[in-house]
Amino acid sequence: MSLHHTARLIALATLLAVPCVAQSTQATQNQYQREAVDADVTLHNVRFGTGETLDALRLHYKTLGKPHRNAAGKIDNAILILHGTGDRSDSMLTSVFAEPLFGPGDPLDITRYYVVLPDDIGHGQSSKPSDGLHARFPHYDYDDMVQTQHTMLTQHLGIDHLRLILGVSMGGMQTFVWGETYPGFADALMPLTCLPVPIAGRNRMMRYAAMQAIRTDPAYNNGEYKTQPPSIHAANTILLVTGTSPLVLQGIAPTRQQAEAYVDKTVAQRDATTDANNFLYYIDSSRNYDASQHLDRITVPITWVNTADDFINPPELRIAEHYAPQLKQGKFVLLPISAETRGHGTNMLAAIWRPYLADLMRRSQPTH
């Protein structure tokens, strides 16, 4: 393996290794990072599924492209792209995600489409526990996220229909929720690296273990800590290897010394940017997710893409094969393990799944 190839693998693995925290910012901004327009909306008197309320909820978002209005004055070219757990809209503008999708002639060409990329509740520049409420922040879930996304689009951006909803990981699960909660709101759906069933088994065990490391730490102090509790290090370590694949990690760390150095460096980077309350909330937001009961409500074309080296959604469970036939216009794709895939983090390498998106855009083209 050449030094150049090894360095490239290390850079990609560091970017993708932990899906449940924000991706690192690139040192040099690409075209899409420069062109993205930032904005905020404030939703008032928001009631969450738990019954908790917020007088004001800030939702931050970015946009690419310009809205187009049809003869009736309606925006008809909007696309919603949803990030993963602990991430933010910035991650969808990294070169490996944006450049295969948003350029001229690409499936989501921003000269044709108006792309909306929100920071979810509890993430990025949207309202979150670390803003001041700490552990008194409402305990949001995926339904709350989708409901507030819908309110933002319809009441603040003037969008009452979407050409596409595409989501990765948590955003993929939200894509299923969107399709069932607001049938037909989008012409097409593309969930990546996710399942429609409740978070259970090893997936929930991993999340629970990470959360318990923090909750049982005396320094956590019921969320009223002055400095980050040391347990955030243990929590980040638990999540470290879930987002990539053994093939990649073996390639970048073939010795004990390299493996240990990789852990030390990567976890230290995550520790420096992770807030314990925010972590607890976004990891636990999946606690009551279950899209498996109402897949029949999804009637638009949908392409669902998983990868065979995904530690979080392992194909040997054969869950996708059981539920995919229930999707009326559904296609399920299981990407094989290759030198290019990165386990769960494959969802951020758009060049790999771009052909399936192009096919979905063709088969969901509106006839009117």
What's the rounded overall pLDDT mean? Answer: 92
Distance between the termini: 53 Å
Count of DSSP strands:
8
Order of helices and strands: HHEEEHEHEHEHHHHHEHEH
- Could you tell me the strand content as a percent range? 5-15%
Q: Mind summarizing the main beta sheet?
A: 8 strands, mixed
Relative helix content: 25-40%
Instruction: Describe the global form.
Output: globular
Provide a descriptive summary of the structure in words.
With 368 residues, this protein is an alpha/beta fold. Helix content is 34%, strand content 15%. It has helices at 3-16, 31-35, 95-98, 142-156, 170-181, 201-215, 231-239, 246-252, 256-271, 276-284, 319-323, 350-363; strands at residues 37-47, 53-64, 78-82, 114-118, 164-168, 189-192, 302-307, 330-335. A hairpin with a 5-residue loop joins strand 1 and strand 2. Helix 1 crosses helix 8, helix 4 (142-156) packs across helix 5 (170-181) and helix 6 runs antiparallel to helix 7. Mean pLDDT is 92; it is low at 1-26.
